[in-house]
Please model this.
Amino acid sequence: MSPVIAPTISAHGAAMPAVGYGTMLFPEPERAVGLVQHALACGYRHIDTARKYGSEQWVGEGIRASGLPRTDLWVTTKVTEENAKADDFARSVETSLETLGLDYVDLLLIHWPQPRVPLEETLGALARAKRDGLARNIGVSNFTIALLDEAVAKCPEPLFTNQIEYHAYLRQDRLIAACRKHGLLVTCYAPLARTAVMKDPVVKAIAAAHSKTPAQIALRWLVQQPDVGIVPRALEFAEIEENIELFDFVLTTQEMDAIGALRDNNLRVVSPEVRRPDWDEG
Ligand SMILES: NC(=O)c1ccc[n+]([C@@H]2O[C@H](COP(=O)([O-])OP(=O)(O)OC[C@H]3O[C@@H](n4cnc5c(N)ncnc54)[C@H](OP(=O)(O)O)[C@@H]3O)[C@@H](O)[C@H]2O)c1
Model:
């Protein structure tokens, strides 16, 4: 297995590997560390974690076990909406770094909007983490167009990305246009719609034509779009490898359009009632 190093996508002078390894709903520690190590051995240089996932410790251990220099890696973590107040936010960042065993993260995100805390307060704490050197870049996740407009206007430091659900079964054109207008990258979570898109006959037929798997077609469709990155999760070694082997083929314009047409399925796989904002349509 020769490692596949994904290309980077850039905003505000920083370059993030376009493919990250997602670590939500991770298994027991012994297996988790091995999975992170395997992802790094396959060439992943970007790991996506969050305080809420409980995977930060295994991510840190996997990184140390890999022997890779810290400067070769991009680590993202997130602060939950329960910690949106400035003091709680700062404590959460400190705990994340301690748990990861790192001095800084490459990207720190507000995980979900919190309507009960003024956005200025959370953004101030986010910007402070950057100014204190605890995060190289900062951004948001699950922000709608209205929230993004407000965040960009109020954040004292530039925002790097909005991490959102985006895949071949969900139309996000307006939100993506808003990210681009503000100079933010789009990071796609649940890029396989938790396997739903892999079962689609159109995706399967294109996969057969390229001698690739349906997962690779669904992921390639995303990373072939400008300024779009992905953070798929996989718990099988073969799938981890597959999900980064996306750069030795190109989808034609017709194939891109055929997969794009599937977005009318309008499937949103992550929408927790307790924290979802008023999602934008299309
Ligand atoms: N910001 C947020 O609010 C937010 C929300 C959700 C997720 N995320 C991030 O996004 C990451 C990915 O999202 P997700 O895990 O919800 O969904 P996903 O990546 O769309 O789908 C994961 C599912 O697809 C399967 N899979 C992955 N690669 C495969 C392959 N090549 N062939 C066959 N099956 C494959 C996985 O199997 P296994 O059972 O083997 O893993 C798992 O069941 C998370 O880990 C997390 O880092 C962020």
User: Anything to note?
Assistant: The beta strands are 8-11, 14-17, 21-22, 46-48, 74-79, 105-110, 135-141, 161-165, 185-189, 228-230. The chain has a mean pLDDT of 97.
